[in-house]
Structure formats: C-alpha cells, structure tokens
C-alpha cells in the first residue's frame, strides 16, 4: 500500500482500526517518514546506519524480523519481534556515524503504528539528540502504554520527552532537546514476561511547538531568604540555539499559600512579565517577594510563587521562597553539639525523624522535590553514579542543588552525601586513584596509609562530599573472595596498623577536624567478619564467597574480625557499615544470622561494649535480605541498631513503613530518637548546618602533582619482590627491555574495580600512567609487544606484565567466572618471553595468582597488586629509583586446594609466606645464628623500653638474613615461623619475632 493510498483511505482505516488517528489538519505539513520497515533500513550497527538489538544479558536482546502483514498500516511489511527479557533489552535505529545527523526541529513530534496486545505494559521510547553520533548523544525518553488491541497510531510529542538522569552514554552535551542533530531512536521492551510485538510507519508529524524551542526557567526551585529581607526570583526565557523569540511569551505570577502567612510573614505580590517577540534568549526578569521581620524564633516557612506561562514551556516546578529558620537554639554554633542535637530532636515530627534515617541514591531523584517532601537525611552516589559531565565542578553543583532542597524543610537539616571513595575519589574522572587496600597493606607503612587518607579526603570534600564509605577493615581469609583486594591483609594486626587512614580521612579522633574543608566522615566496614565467609556459602546469585556465612568460635571472632573495629572506634571513626554476610558463632545457638539483624553484635558489642557513638549505616538494600515481609525487615534492622538505611530506590517505602511501625508500637520511639541523635551529631560535627554547600577551594588539588606523588610513592612501596634470581632487578638503563603482557599498558586493569564504575573496566578509562608508560618515562630502552608476537631476539631482559581484569564484590568470586590462574594469553606471553631471555614477571591483580608451575622459568617475580593510576611508581622500583620494600599482606598459595591458607595455620606450606618480600638497594646484614642471637637480644631490649622504631628495624634485619639464606627453597619449616614472625612484629613482640626468624633460618 502506498503512502498516498493510506492517506486517501483514512476514513476506511478509521473504521477498520478502532484506534487509528485521523488525517492531519489542512495547515500541517506532510509527515516525514523515518522508518517504513520495507527493507530500506538494514539490520546493522554503528558506524553504518541500521537497526540493532541490545540487552543486559546475552539472552535479553529481542529477536527482530521484517514480516509480511496484509493489515500493515504502511506498505506491506512491519517490524515484528519476540522477547523474553530478564534485565533490560530493546532495539535501536541509529543513523550512520559517517553521515550528518538529521534535523527534526521543524516537527511537533514522532509517531508510530503499534499492534496493541492490551497488556497494560509500558514501552519506553527514546530519541538520541546532539553529540558526535548515535552512541555519543544525549538520551531523551518518554513512553506509551499498550492498553489497546490492534493497530493504533501512537503520537509522542517532543515536548513530552525528558532528559534521562539514570544513564547517559557519554554524559550530557547541553541538556537541551535541540532536535537539529538527531541520531535516531530506540525502544525498550517490557521485562519479566515473554511477549511479541509489531510496529510500522515511524514518522515525524506536525509543526514544531514554540514551547519545545522556548522555555521559562527560574534561577532555582528554592530561594532562601533571611527574615525581613526581600527574596528575588529570577525568571529567564531561553530558546534552543539561542535564537530570539518568534512569538511573545507571558508569565503571570502570584504568591500562594505555603507555611508562611501572607501579611504577617511576607507581602503578597502578583503581576505579569512579558517577553515580546524578538526578545533575546537568556533575557531575565525579576520578581521581588518582600518578607517581614517579627523577631520571634521560628522554623523555616515557605511561600510558593505560582507561574502561569503562555508561549513557552513552563518551569517543571513551582519555585518556593523560603524564609530561613532563625533564633532557635540548634542553630547556635556556640552551643555544645549535644545541646544542639537535643533541641532539634525535640522539635522534630516522626516523619522528619524517619527522613533523617533514610538514604537514597542520587539516580532515584527524578523528582528532587522529594528531598524536602520526605525530609530525606542523606543521598549517595553508588559505583558509577556520577553527574554529567563527571568533573569536580559538576559534582559540587549537583550536590549543592540537592542541598538547596533541604532549605524548603522546616528545620533545614542538611543532607549528608556519601560516596565509595575506596582508593581515592574513584568515582570522579581525573581524581588521584591510589592502590587498592591490598597494596597499601603491602607497604607496611602506616604513615603512608595516613597520607592516602589525607589525599582522598581532600579530593572528596572539594567536590562537596563530606562522607566516605571507607575504609574497609575486613580481614581477608580466603583469596577466592572477590572483595579480597579491599582488605589490607589477612592478619588483624596488619589491618589495625593501617587504620591510620582513618585519621587521614577524619583528622583528630575527637572529631574536631571534621568541619575542615579537607576532611570527611569515615566509615568502618563491613561489620563484622565479611572477610571470613566460607567458600560455597553464598546464596546471592552466582556468588561463591561474598555475602556468605562466616563460621567462627567466639575467640576467633574477637581476635581476628572484631579487633580492627575496636581500633576504629578508638580512632573515633564516625560511621560503621554492617556486612551483607551472615555470622555463625559456635555455641551461641543462633546459627547463621545476617549481620544486619544481629542486635547482639551491633547494639551489644559495637555500641555498648566498644562505646561506638557514631551512627550505623546499612549496606545497599541490605535490609531486603532479611527474613519476613518488608515491615519485618525494617523492624529487625532498626531494632538491631541500624541508624540509617541505604534504600537507594525505595526511600518512599522505607519512610512509610518505619513511620507505621513506630505508630503501631512495634518500633520504640526511643530507638528512633537514638538513631536520629547519632546522625545529627555527625552532621553538626561536620559543620553542615553552618556550611551546607560545597567548599571548592581545594578543587585545584584534585589530581594534582602533589597528590599523584603520594599515589606514586604508594604504588612503589606496594610492589612485593617475591623472587630475584641473579639480582635481575633493578633493571639498568643500558639494557634493552622487551615488554609484553595484557596488563603492561592497560590503565583500567591497573586500577581495578571501583574505578569510575562499580566493576571497573579494562582499557583507557581514567587519566594516569600505565606500567609501560612509566618504564618509558624512566628512560629505559623499551620495546612493547602485548602478546609477545614481535621478534624476541637481541634483548637483555623481558618484563611481562600479566594478571587480572577488573571486578568488584561477589562478581569477582573465584568460581563465578573467575579463577586464580593466569589467562591462556598471559601464560603464552610468559612462556615465550621467559624462554627467550631473562625475565621479570609482574602480576597486576587483586589477589595472588597461581604461578608455581612456571616459577622455575621466571627469574624475577613481582606482586604488583592494583597500583592505581601512577604506573611510574612501579617503574621507580624496577629501575632502582626506589628500593623494593613491600611485603606480602596475604599468604601466596601453591595451589587453590590449599585455600584458605593464612598465617598461624597448623599446616602452612605456601609458595611464599605472609610477610615475604625481597629488597633491592638495601644492605643485607652479614652473619648467621650468632648474628640472629644478637639481634634477638637487642630486639627484646627495645621491646622492654618501648622503642618501637629500633625494634622494627632489628626484626627487619633478621628477616633479610632469613630471606637471603632461604632463597627459592621455601619449605613449611621455613615458611611457618617466618610468617609468624611478621605477625609478632606487628603486635610489638620484637624479641619473639626474631626468635621465630632464627627458627626459620635454622630450617632453611
């Protein structure tokens, strides 16, 4: 059927198709076809023009075909398909990236024929606007509901499309739906139930509405003003492309009823603003709203300013003038924090208290007015949840925008915004990305851990974020765990020694530094025992270890897993996050109980026995894993001692349920008051009531040379030299070096998970220096061949950089698509290079890799961990600018069958023991057993006199002696006492540590 025939027979179609649209109005232009589905647009993908499918999983993309249909509204074929989507899926028509974009700006909207199934399901329709091509453009979306049967022409006016806030492929371009550079459209099909569909005749229709190209905005949705002063609301008209107005725009305004009283708290105003045709885009008029002073102490009061717009798109929200709260004791910074908390708490309603106990994800704020509407206490950015563009200024602007919303609440309680800055401000592009904790543990340098905390805090706070969900104080006991790199190590004493990072983040333990512009509230996580979860115990999806069960005796719990949290509380950590995992304590009769439900541990141990006076924040949606219905989840978690719930997208359900449970008497008001008091205390200590908005004065230091120098030093000190036959390392500048391996020139692999996104990604993801670039900058004579395919003749030494690709949490569990073995490509590269020349193998990974079968052919072996963005730090030790000083923070196993294997085990025969780490550029003391006896006596004396510096130095000398003698012949008789000695060193028992080393020496 030709298009003219279709239009000519519109009346007939209207009878046959009950939902058919009528013919266009006489003054409207003819529709412009986009897709007829007659074969004119192929099934293809970028950079060519075409239709292609996509989905969250391999089985989520729909199956598409061009089907012959006698009832096709347009031509003889339709686009038909079937789908069975578990996550998300759909299809796209992109225009060719090699051709100009299309101009849709002359049209009112886009429409299509849809074969209705009357299933009530929503179909999301998206258009791609601006940018370089279809995969680098802004996404604008709307939807229609399949609530009809048979063919219907669905019209989607462009004025109904909204900018996607949950996902943009490359970030915002201008946040304006210009339509002059349109790259195509996409449909997202319903998930959860099998279905099929048919569509036809996608076309542009109608004449553009000026409301699409012209809009009226106000400078802010909330305009705070001090009592007695005049608020100024700036009203601006703007057009796409900054063209003058084609038609006049009028804005009628009038103050309306809010919580402020007209005539008492403010002087009512009304009137009309006129923007004539020809007015320049960006022109602003001001509405002045005078407020009155009555000298009484009052909470904040609101004055809505209603705007009626003609000729342009109206503001999305009615702006509110807010007369600031004033004169109330909690606002007085001269009062002690406890008095300010008591005063504010006594004024709050139950709903306001429930809001303070609620944390939502920024991506859930599609209606930012909910911040005030639900009196939310906190927002967070999950991994990869970033503003557009992902810059320090955009972060500060975004958070200030959220913070502004709190000004419209009665008591103007500021939000506390949190991020997972677990190795630097890792969500921010351009931030300094430090080694992950496993590498920091390898440095054995508490002062360096402190400096990494300082760098992180300064960069995080400079973007307006006052709260960091770090550090992770887990004691990792099984390297098959996907979170093992988040741990400082397997020994609680090592983890405790690295907790100087808390002072780096927060400052002094008394909290006096928290209001500084370079400090953040820290979070000790995950309480308690997540590092001890047993392999195979997880019931979360396909995870094998993460979120599983930790089975311990009471003594093991105290000595291994609780010890780091005791230290954290002593250091004044402000918040604690429980683990997803379950705890099963032998003999307590409870069995395996989710940590978020263990009141005996949270209330009993953490708060009562340890004296923790900060607040407890749940993990992401963790309360949903508790038994029972949702009300039971809330009762259990609050009763167990959780003070704030991270309920990213279910904040409405949580606040409503919490309120209902308190009203019903199933949650005590005193428990709620305790939770809110703890939260308010930290907000006051952070200075948020006096300075709620971002202080960006430190933004220039983000990613600065000084900060990257700390990261470079950390990367260098984290390198652990496991083997160095013939003194191959350090390299000489005169040597010709052949570099190979998958991780030599991949900054994404080098930084690992929790870098820009939750899982991280391979490739050129963040600014920084790869290991290869570091070697080149060091001045070496370097040739690179990733897969070692280039000729290997004529080189003095090979450097093969291999290891893991990024992952996070249970996604990275061994057995969940991951192993501890090198990939086949990595093995081949090692084999080829090491067969051709002397070689050093660097393993860039979050945990030990099994290399015992190749160890004899490797001259030097280095555990590089995940060194962050500063590959020059790795080059520093390879070329001898710095010495190798790192020590294993975890035991390096011979085989996976040995796992779990940890220092102190009754049977302990690893490839390399805990604490092992050869040195370069360091004098190894001469002597043997007599020297060790002397070192032991002096170490014991240092211990008695409290001379920690001398004690550590003496143990280090003894350790170097043992490593020199043992060489590559590590037996259980050597490894066990050697590892024990490092634990003794960390607990200050220097004399005993040397005794153990002497035992290892005799066995070597």
Shape: globular
Q: Give the radius of gyration.
A: 32 Å
Number of strands: 37
Distance, first to last CA? 90 Å
Output the number of helix runs.
25
Mean pLDDT across every amino acid position: 95
Helix proportion range: 25-40%
Major sheet characteristics: 6 strands, antiparallel
Q: In what range is the share of β-strand residues?
A: 15-25%
List keywords for this structure.
six-stranded antiparallel sheet; alpha/beta; disordered N terminus; 25 helices
Summarize the structure.
With about 1000 residues, the chain is an alpha/beta fold.
Describe this structure in words.
Pfam families: Calx-beta, CBM_11, Glyco_hydro_3, Glyco_hydro_3_C. InterPro entries: CalX-like_sf (IPR038081), Calx_beta (IPR003644), CBM11 (IPR005087), Cellulose_Degrad_GH3 (IPR051915), Galactose-bd-like_sf (IPR008979), GH (IPR017853), Glyco_hydro_3_AS (IPR019800), Glyco_hydro_3_C (IPR002772). Residues 1-25 form the signal peptide. Keywords: Calcium, Glycosidase, Hydrolase, Repeat, Signal. GO terms for molecular function: hydrolase activity. By secondary structure, the chain is an alpha/beta fold. Helices cover 27% and strands 21% of the residues. The chain has 25 helices and 37 strands. Strands 1, 3, 4, 6, 9 and 12 form a six-stranded antiparallel sheet that branches. It has a six-stranded antiparallel sheet with strand order 2-5-11-7-8-10, with no helix packed on it. A six-stranded mixed sheet has the order 32-37-36-35-33-34, with helices on both faces. β3 (63-68) and β4 (77-83) form a beta hairpin. α19 (771-777) crosses α21 and α23 packs parallel to α25 (990-1003). The model is unreliable at 1-23 (pLDDT under 50).
């Amino acid at each position: 059927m030709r298009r003219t025939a279709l239009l000519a027979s519109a009346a007939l179609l209207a009878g046959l198709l009950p939902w058919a649209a009528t013919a266009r109005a006489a003054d409207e232009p003819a529709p412009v076809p986009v897709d007829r589905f007659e074969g004119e647009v192929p099934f293809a993908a970028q950079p060519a023009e075409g239709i292609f499918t996509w989905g969250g999983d391999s089985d989520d993309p729909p199956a598409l075909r061009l089907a012959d249909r006698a009832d096709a509204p347009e031509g003889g074929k339709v686009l038909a398909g079937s789908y069975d989507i578990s996550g998300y899926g759909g299809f796209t028509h992109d225009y060719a990236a090699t051709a100009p974009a299309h101009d849709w700006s002359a049209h009112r909207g886009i429409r299509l024929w849809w074969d209705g199934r009357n299933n009530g399901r929503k179909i999301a329709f998206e258009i791609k606007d601006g940018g370089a091509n279809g995969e680098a453009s802004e996404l604008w979306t709307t939807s229609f509901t399949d609530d009809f049967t048979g063919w219907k022409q669905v019209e989607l006016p462009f004025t109904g499309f909204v900018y996607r806030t949950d996902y943009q492929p490359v970030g915002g371009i201008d946040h304006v739906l210009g339509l002059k550079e349109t790259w195509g459209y996409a449909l997202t099909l319903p998930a959860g139930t099998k279905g099929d569909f048919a569509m036809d005749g996608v076309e542009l229709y109608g004449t553009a509405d000026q409301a699409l190209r012209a809009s009226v905005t106000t400078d802010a949705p909330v305009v705070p003003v001090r009592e007695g002063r005049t608020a100024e609301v700036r009203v601006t008209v703007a057009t796409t492309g900054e063209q003058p107005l084609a038609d006049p725009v009028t804005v009628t305004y009038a103050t309306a009823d809010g919580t402020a009283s007209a005539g008492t708290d403010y002087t009512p105003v009304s009137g009309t603003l006129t923007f004539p045709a020809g007015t320049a885009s960006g022109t602003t008029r001001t509405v002045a709203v005078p407020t009155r002073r009555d000298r009484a102490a009052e909470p904040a009061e609101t004055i809505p300013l209603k705007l009626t717009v003609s000729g342009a798109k109206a503001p999305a929200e009615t702006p509110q003038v807010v007369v600031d709260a004033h004169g109330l004791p909690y606002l007085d910074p001269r009062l002690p924090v406890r008095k300010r908390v008591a005063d504010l708490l006594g004024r709050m309603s139950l709903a306001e208290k429930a809001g303070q106990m609620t944390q939502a994800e920024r991506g859930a704020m599609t209606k930012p007015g909910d911040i005030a509407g639900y009196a939310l206490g906190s927002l967070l950015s999950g991994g990869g949840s970033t503003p557009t563009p992902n810059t320090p200024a955009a972060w500060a602007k975004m958070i200030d925008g959220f913070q502004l919303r709190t000004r419209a609440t009665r008591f103007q309680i500021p939000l506390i915004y949190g991020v997972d800055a677990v190795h630097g401000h890792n969500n921010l592009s351009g931030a300094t990305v430090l080694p992950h904790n496993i590498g920091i543990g390898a440095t054995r340098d508490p002062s360096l851990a402190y400096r990494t905390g300082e760098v992180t805090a300064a960069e995080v706070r400079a973007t307006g974020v006052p709260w960091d969900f770090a550090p992770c104080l887990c004691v990792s006991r099984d390297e098959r765990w996907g979170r093992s790199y988040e741990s400082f190590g397997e020994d609680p004493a090592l983890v405790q020694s690295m907790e100087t990072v808390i002072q780096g983040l927060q400052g002094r333990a008394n909290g006096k530094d928290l209001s500084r512009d370079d400090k953040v509230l820290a979070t000790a996580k995950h309480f308690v025992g997540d590092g001890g979860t047993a392999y195979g115990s997880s019931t979360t999806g396909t995870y094998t270890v993460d979120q599983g069960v930790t089975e311990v005796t009471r003594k093991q719990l105290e000595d291994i897993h609780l010890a780091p949290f005791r230290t954290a509380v002593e250091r004044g950590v402000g918040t604690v996050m429980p683990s997803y995992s379950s705890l099963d304590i032998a003999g307590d009769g409870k069995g395996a109980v989710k940590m978020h439900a263990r009141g005996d541990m949270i209330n009993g141990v953490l708060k009562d026995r340890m004296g923790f006076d900060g607040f407890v924040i749940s993990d992401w949606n963790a309360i949903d894993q508790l038994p029972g219905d949702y009300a039971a989840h809330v009762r259990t978690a609050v009763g167990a001692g959780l003070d704030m719930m991270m309920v990213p997208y279910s904040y409405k359900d949580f606040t409503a349920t919490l309120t209902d449970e308190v009203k019903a008497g199933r949650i005590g008001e005193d428990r709620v008051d305790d939770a809110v008091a703890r939260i308010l205390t930290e907000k006051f200590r952070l200075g948020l009531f006096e300075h709620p908005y971002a202080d960006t004065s430190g933004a220039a230091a983000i990613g600065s040379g000084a900060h990257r120098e700390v990261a470079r030093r950390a990367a260098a000190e984290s390198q652990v030299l496991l083997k160095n036959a013939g003194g191959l390392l350090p390299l000489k500048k005169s040597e010709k070096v052949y570099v190979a391996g998958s991780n030599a020139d991949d900054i994404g692999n080098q930084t690992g998970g929790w870098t820009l996104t939750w899982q991280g990604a391979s490739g050129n993801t963040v600014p920084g220096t790869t290991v290869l670039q570091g070697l080149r900058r060091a001045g070496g004579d370097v040739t690179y061949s990733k897969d070692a395919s280039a000729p290997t003749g004529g080189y003095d030494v090979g450097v093969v950089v291999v290891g893991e690709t990024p992952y996070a949490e249970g996604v990275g569990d061994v057995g969940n698509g991951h192993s501890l073995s090198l990939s086949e490509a990595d093995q081949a590269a090692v084999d080829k290079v090491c067969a051709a020349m002397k070689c050093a193998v660097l393993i860039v990974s979050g945990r030990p890799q099994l290399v015992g079968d190749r160890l004899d052919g490797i001259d030097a072996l280095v555990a590089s961990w995940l060194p962050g963005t500063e590959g020059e730090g790795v080059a520093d030790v390879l070329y001898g600018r710095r010495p190798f000083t790192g020590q294993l923070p975890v035991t390096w196993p011979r085989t996976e069958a040995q796992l779990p294997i940890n220092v102190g085990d009754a049977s302990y025969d690893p490839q390399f023991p805990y604490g092992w780490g050869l040195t370069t550029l360091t004098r190894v003391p001469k002597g043997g057993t007599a020297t060790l006896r002397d070192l032991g006596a002096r170490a014991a004396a240092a211990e008695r006199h409290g001379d920690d510096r001398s004690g550590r130095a003496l143990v280090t000398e003894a350790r170097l002696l043992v490593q020199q003698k043992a060489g590559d012949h590590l037996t259980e008789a050597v490894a066990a006492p050697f590892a024990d000695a490092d634990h003794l060193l960390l607990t200050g028992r220097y004399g005993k540590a040397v005794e153990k080393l002497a035992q290892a020496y005799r066995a070597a």
